[in-house]
Amino acid sequence: MKSYIRVKVSEGGKPIHFKERTPFEVVVGGKYYFSFGCRKVRWGTVTGIDGNRVDIDYSGGSLSLFRDELGRDPIEAIQNEVT
Q1: For residues 63 and 56, is the Cβ–Cβ distance under 8 A?
Q2: 41-to-2, 50, 51 alpha-carbon distances in Å
Q3: pTM for this structure?
Q4: What is the DSSP string of 17-43?
Q5: 2-61 residue pLDDT tens
Q6: 1 pLDDT exceeds 90?
Q7: CA angle 37, 38, 42 (to 5 degrees)
Q8: For the CA atoms of 44, 36, 2, 77, what is the dihedral angle to 10 degrees?
């Protein structure tokens, strides 16, 4: 099984500059999406929060990302693409 979902990007689903991102409240145990580009979106569960950094476990392992690199849905994850 793939650990990502492919998303067909609409006009609203383009990556935005990191200075234009708006962080949102993230909770431990919550399910969030993230993307490294190429319209591939992965999801994972937040296991820890340290200031602006978020630890997230997903099917491929674990990562530490900035809070503004997450999305509440796949389109938002593409907009907040990991840089």
Answers
A1: yes
A2: 11, 23, 24
A3: 0.85
A4: -GGG-------TT-EEEEE-STTEEEE
A5: 556 666 666 557 888 889 998 899 999 999 999 998 878 899 999 999 999 999 999 889
A6: no
A7: 65
A8: 50
Q: Given this model, what pLDDT does residue 4 score?
A: 61
Which tokens sit at 42? 């992965």
DSSP 78: H
Higher-pLDDT residue of 3 and 66 is: 66
Which one, of 5, 7, 3, 2, lies nearest residue 79 by Cα?
Answer: 7
CA 44 to the chain's CA centroid: 8
